[in-house]
Integrase catalytic domain-containing protein
Amino acid sequence: MFGGHHQLYQWNDKYYVSFIDDFTKFTWICPLCYKSQVQLVFEKFYAFIKNHFKANVKYFQFDGGGEYVSLKFKKFLATNGIIHLVSCPYILQQME
């Protein structure tokens, strides 16, 4: 997730979260008004992938930011068989 920028358009989106397919490097970028929306956006993204591509998300890697470590989010990942990987913060190579 990245953000904290000044509002550029008429929408209130200050943050963005990106989801990257590790194999194809295809990237989805989703705007957020608040960091707390990450779980909701991921749940919608997960449903989109399952419905449109008939595929499963196997791994979810993040930098350990607070928006990713709630019990509710961890439960969603575990319930759907998604393994969560935590990379070291500020190490770009681990996030590629």
